[in-house]
Design brief:
Blueprint (H helix, E strand, L loop, with lengths): L4 H11 L8 H9 L3 H24 L2 E2 L10 E3 L2 E6 L4 H9 L3 E4 L1 H4 L5 E2 L4 H15 L2
Parallel strand pairs: 3-4, 4-5
Antiparallel strand pairs: 1-2, 2-3
C-alpha cells in the first residue's frame, strides 16, 4: 500500500472541512504557522483518515460521512471495522474486546487479532510526513 501526495491532500481535505476546495498553497499557509509539537497531532489525524480512505478504495468499502463516527470507521462487505493507524496496542485490544472487527497497521496486527492493513506504521507515517514536509517548506 502506498499513499501518494494527492491522496494525502485528499485526507487533509476530508479531515479539515475548512480545506474543502482549498489550494495546496492555502493548506501550506495554515500548517506552516503551527508549532512542531502540534504537527504531531495533525499528522496522526491525517494518517488515520488517509488509511481509511485507502482501505475504502482498495477493499470497495464505505466510509461514514463524519471522520469521528463512534466506534467504527468503515464498512466492508456489510461489516463495520475500526481502523487503527498507529502503534497503540491498548486501543486495538479495547476495540477487539468490545467485539469490534479491527484493521490495523502491520506492527499491531502482528501482535493482536486485528487484520493487517498491509502497511506498517513506519511507512504510513513517512508517507504522510513527506507531504506535510512539502506543505511546510
Amino acid at each position: 500500500m502506498y499513499l501518494d501526495h494527492d491522496e494525502v491532500l485528499m485526507a487533509i481535505e476530508r479531515g479539515y472541512t475548512q480545506f474543502d476546495d482549498s489550494s495546496e498553497e492555502e493548506m501550506s499557509a495554515y500548517f506552516s504557522e503551527l508549532s512542531e509539537e502540534s504537527m504531531d497531532g495533525h499528522i496522526s489525524n491525517v494518517k488515520g483518515i488517509a488509511l481509511e480512505m485507502e482501505l475504502e478504495r482498495e477493499l470497495d468499502g464505505e466510509l461514514f460521512e463524519l471522520t469521528n463516527h463512534a466506534g467504527t470507521d468503515i464498512i466492508i462487505d456489510g461489516q463495520e471495522y475500526s481502523v487503527k493507524s498507529g502503534v497503540s496496542i491498548q486501543g486495538t485490544n479495547d476495540d477487539l474486546s468490545e467485539g469490534l472487527q479491527v484493521i490495523a497497521t502491520s506492527e499491531i496486527a502482528n501482535i493482536t487479532d486485528a487484520t493487517d492493513a498491509g502497511i506498517s506504521n513506519i511507512d504510513l507515517t513517512e508517507q504522510v510526513q513527506d507531504v506535510f514536509n512539502t506543505l511546510c517548506m
